[in-house]
Amino acid sequence: MLPSKNSYTDIKEIVLARIRDHTWPPGSIIPGEIELAEEFGCARATVNRAMRELAEDGILDRKRKAGTRVNKSPVRHAKFAIPLVRIEVESTGAAYRYTLLNKKIFIAPAWLRARLSLGDSAEVLHLQCMHFADNTPFQFEDRWINIDAVHNIENADFTTIGPNEWLVNEMPFTDVEIAFSARVADKKLAEYLSLSIGEPVFTTERITWLSGTPITFARFSFGRGYSLKTRF
Amino acid sequence: MLPSKNSYTDIKEIVLARIRDHTWPPGSIIPGEIELAEEFGCARATVNRAMRELAEDGILDRKRKAGTRVNKSPVRHAKFAIPLVRIEVESTGAAYRYTLLNKKIFIAPAWLRARLSLGDSAEVLHLQCMHFADNTPFQFEDRWINIDAVHNIENADFTTIGPNEWLVNEMPFTDVEIAFSARVADKKLAEYLSLSIGEPVFTTERITWLSGTPITFARFSFGRGYSLKTRF
DNA sequence: CAGTGGTCTAGACCACACA
DNA sequence: GTGTGGTCTAGACCACTGC
User: Fold this and answer.
1) Is the N or C terminus of chain B more exposed, i.e. has fewer CB atoms within 10 Å?
2) Structure confidence by residue, pLDDT tens digits, B130-162
3) Which CATH entry fits the domain spanning A8-70: 1.10.10.10, 3.40.50.150, 1.20.272.10, 3.40.30.10?
4) Residues of B whose CB is below 8 A from A83
């Protein structure tokens, strides 16, 4: 039994070290919680927390009855903070400014109905707006909101507060899908973001649901040179 | 005391509901763990786990002595899986193929020294390689490895196994910085990825350290139409 | 069915940060 | 100092799942 290695962080370190030095090679099964608790001289709950967190990080794969294995494909998980645009801009020290460009109710186009699994006659509120940092274009927001799912939407005017910020405060959600990609600036986008046509644009798309009901689809196009960073 | 709401997931749901209906508005302090444990009729450890996970998700902000507050800026954290390219390609059902294009040792150029905090005469191994999915270009990898930090690097030949995969298996690391952006395809990149010059390219850059020592800088440029997705 | 991880409890001590 | 969250323990029961 190892002495005085009883914190869950210590156990994580030991386990990681054993994986790195191939004591427990990728794909291999590692001892059960009771056995490890005895070896480390701690309670099973402590081992459990260490192993659970390593599993969350994608290092281990745990299954009841089958035991705990070292993950073969070392999938790392990167965590990105997705803040409000306003917060993001203000955190750089720049002044934030918001402008509503368009606001209109439509019957959802086919591509959107497909994306959100909407019915044929579903109505959506389409919004386009700009977010500026010190008066330089920071982000263009293209948003569709499923009107049936957000019933007091008619009372929101979106002239002073962006749809993202409004929705975050008014509308709960349970599921989010995010996609990152690189797209080309078309004529409109180039105009809005002060780019040349054909320039690359970092784009994120987001769909949110409330327990199965689609709420909104949004595409965010960022100005020149934007990059999304994280560290862990 | 609420009856039969004693699992940590139940508690998370209740807390989220109270935040959504503004029982506990953003920025407000919420009751301590002992009080909540009494209210929910469960142990403090159970409340603790619920609150800890909500704090990890960025919903709550916890401080010893100061208590637990509802986070003002609703920063959501998106978790992205960063798998090996090979796994990523194979998971789509395509056949994976790898090619080494260049391999040469240099004195680190100034921009790289700045990025990795290297000394003036630091040597780096520069590698360029391609990853294919069913013989269509999937990813171009441009990598610099700090030779001093990876001492058995001379024995690796990288003709059959990519540097990413080799490093993951041989070299532990403690810190990673990842950045996503959209870049323009220059002549070489267009050639490698079968693109036109000027096309947008989804790019990720990664720097890894082992307890303060820089290991490697890598830039990954993805083929047309690639997008990184996550759901939570 | 049986073994493994998943969770909960009641109690305890500790560490940090605010007064 | 003192109150809050952070962690650990010893024990218990449950739930999933592979055999």
Assistant:
1) N
2) 999 998 999 999 999 999 888 788 778 888 888
3) 1.10.10.10
4) 73, 75
